[in-house]
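Sorry, any thoughts here?
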Amino acid sequence: DALFVPLGGGGLLSGTGLVAREVAPGCALFGVEPEAGDDGRQSLARGEIVTIEPPRTLADGAQTLALGELTFPLVREAVTDILTVPDEALAPCLRDVATYLKLVVEPTGVLGLAALYAQAERWRGKRVGV
């Protein structure tokens, strides 16, 4: 029903969008980036690539200045929305992934989970991927 995908330069999100469109056309696709580095959200809103200053964020895998020229059109076409999460939302997700999944991941890897936690009631009982 929904996918929450970390967003940096747009490669993972654009590729996920291409596959989701073919495999699950009704699936809502959300790009998720750090609140401090919301170039993707701004770009989607303006309809053009927005470049920002280097963001200060724990999610350093998404510490990009702008979406890629090749990925932006694919992201714009595929996503339902681009969401942002504050750095403070990442620690509980890192803890839960370590506790319940027995995995140690880097903060960028839980951006999608943090966005899902913020909308948990909306997606309760649905099929969701992070």
